[in-house]
Amino acid sequence: MKFFKEIFKIPEALAHCDIPCGIYETNTLLVSAQTVIRMVEVMESIPMDKPSLKDRNNFIRCVRVKEDHAQICEEQLVTLWADFFKPEHIAQFPDLHDKVWRAIKLASENKLDVNIQKAKELLVACREVAAMFDQVKVEPKEDLSGSVSDNPDAFKKKLLG
Amino acid sequence: MKLFPVSMFVVRGKSMIPDYKPGDYVITFNWTDVRAGDVVIFKLNEKNYIKRVRKTLKGLVEVAGDNEKESSKIGPVKRSDIIGRVVLLY
């Protein structure tokens, strides 16, 4: 198999939603930011003097969850920034770039650090981005996913022209 | 009818987790029809995509990713755009 991989260039099959589905949300972003805060709080409550095996286990679990959710924040912010926000939104919110960039930096800093202040700043920054998103988001006019079974002929005609 | 009966692809992205992870290799059988539940590779805008068939209709196939956190329901694609059905993962 290694031989085949080296000889032939195997094409990629994308398993992500690169098709412009137009479905964006900020709940995941905000829940992840809140999770980072909660994990820092739990970590700070774990005794550092003579921690038990269970304390050590909990601490490591919190680090992992904090890391994962800070990463989710980063990914969600980058998706909104790169895919959702358009030039007209930049005109509407001149500080959009700066706010998103600051939120991404904070997500990264929260992976490096265990700091409740930075975790709270991350949530505030994410809320600012979510507020901009809420102001400009337009709900999809029709639910294409349900239309196939509801009215297949009309749906097919619309898609195939 | 595709020229070759089988094709090989490498998966990129996380919308088909847990069955298909980034870096997995898949082989498709191209001389077959597809049914709901099949995992297919299809071409759209000069890119190949891997998704699971949700519904089929004459001329159209509705596809979506397994991992709903990563993939939204992306709607139907034309049957003629489907390259093949995934038959082997390695």
From TrEMBL, chain A:
Q: Which Pfam families match?
A: Sod_Ni (PF09055)
Q: Which InterPro entries match?
A: NiSOD_sf, Superoxide_dismutase_Ni-type
Report what the protein is called: Superoxide dismutase, Ni
Q: Supply the source organism's classification.
A: Bacteria, Candidatus Curtissiibacteriota
Q: Which organism is it from?
A: Candidatus Curtissbacteria bacterium RIFCSPHIGHO2_01_FULL_41_11
State the Gene Ontology terms under molecular function: nickel cation binding; superoxide dismutase activity
TrEMBL record, chain B:
Q: From which domain of life does this come?
A: Bacteria
Xref: CDD domains: S26_SPase_I (cd06530)
What's a single GO CC term here?
Answer: endomembrane system
Q: What subcellular compartments does it reside in?
A: Endomembrane system
Tell me the Pfam families matching this sequence: Peptidase_S24
Q: Where is the Peptidase S24/S26A/S26B/S26C domain?
A: 8-87
Question: Which GO molecular function terms does the record list?
Answer: serine-type endopeptidase activity
Just give the chief location class.
membrane
Q: Name one GO biological process term.
A: signal peptide processing
Instruction: List the SUPFAM superfamilies hit by this protein, alphabetically.
Output: LexA/Signal peptidase (SSF51306)
Per its UniProt record, what InterPro entries does this chain match? Answer: LexA/Signal_pep-like_sf, Peptidase_S24_S26A/B/C, Peptidase_S26
What name does the UniProt record give this protein?
Peptidase S24/S26A/S26B/S26C domain-containing protein
Q: Which organism is it from?
A: Candidatus Curtissbacteria bacterium RIFCSPHIGHO2_01_FULL_41_11
The upper taxonomy is: Bacteria, Candidatus Curtissiibacteriota
